[in-house]
Amino acid sequence: MGLLLFVLALSLMKEGAGGLAPFLRGHLEITHALDSLGVGWLMAYVILSGSPVAAAAVALLSAGALSPAQAFTMISGSRLGACLIVLLVGFIYSLRGHERRTALTAGILSLLLVGSVQLLALPVGLVMLDQDWLQNLSLPALEGMASLINRGLDPLIGALASFLPAWMLFVIGIGLTTVSFRLIDRALPQVQLSQTDLDEVPRLIYRPEVMFILGLAITMVTLSVSISISILVPLSARGYMRRENIIPYVLGANISTLIDTLVAGMLIGDPRAVTVVVAHMACATVVSLPLVTLFYRPYERVISGALAWITRRRRNFVLFLSVIFLIPIVLILL
Question: Region 15-22: what's the mean pLDDT?
Answer without folding.
Answer: 62
